[in-house]
Amino acid sequence: MAFNALEGLGLAKPITTMITMMMQKKPVVLYHYPDKAFAVLAAHLFFFATCLLVMFFRNTVCNPIASNQLPLAIISNIYLLDFVDPSGFVQEISSKVSRVVVLDHYKTAVDCGENSCSVGENVERVIDIRRSGATIVFDYFEERAGSGLKDLNVVSMRV
User: Fold this and answer.
1) Whole-model pTM?
2) What is the pLDDT of residues 75-114, one digit of tens each?
3) Is residue 86 part of a domain?
4) Per the CB 3.0–4.6 Å rule, which of 1, 50, 109, 130 could disulfide with 104?
5) Residue 11 forms part of a structural domain
6) Residue 58, domain member (yes or no)
């Protein structure tokens, strides 16, 4: 009965579309907290510009998030901003989601790559110890947004 009322108002299709979008798997941004505000901002701007629903989870060094604390069943991609630890975390989550993207500038991330930490082919790493995490994240999402971030006039926000 309520659905018929929505149809009469022309709202049935938009609401059905919104519900479908909310039920689809979503990207997750897991970020190093509290010092990565600009990296999180860059990710937020990308997802805002592309109109994608996204979930953000903060991660602290003293109490790192565990994979069982994440809603893995509804996650498509995980973006790790300045965060690779704890040991084995990337390997564990990469087997449970479509894609893991590591955007980092810490030596521990480089060491993991050099020691060939076993990760799946669905793990993308962008690691550069000469740059800040915020600029790595901004450049990564800017490349993928096309003109999306530029349309928001955030080009001048480089960190």
Assistant:
1) 0.75
2) 999 999 987 666 788 888 998 999 999 898 766 655 555 4
3) yes
4) 109
5) no
6) yes
Please tell me the total count of domains within the chain: 1
Domain that holds residue 88: 25-157
The verdict on residue 65 lying in a domain is yes
Which CATH number is 43's domain given? 3.40.50
Tell me if 86 sits within 8 A of 63, measured CB to CB. no
SS3 134: helix
b/e map of 76-105 (b: 16 or more CB within 10 Å)? ebbbbbbbbbeeebbbebbeebebbbbbbb
Q: Which residue do the tokens 């690779």 mark?
A: 84
pLDDT band at 125 (very low <50, low <70, confident <90, very high): confident
pLDDT tens, 130-153? 888 888 988 899 888 775 555 555
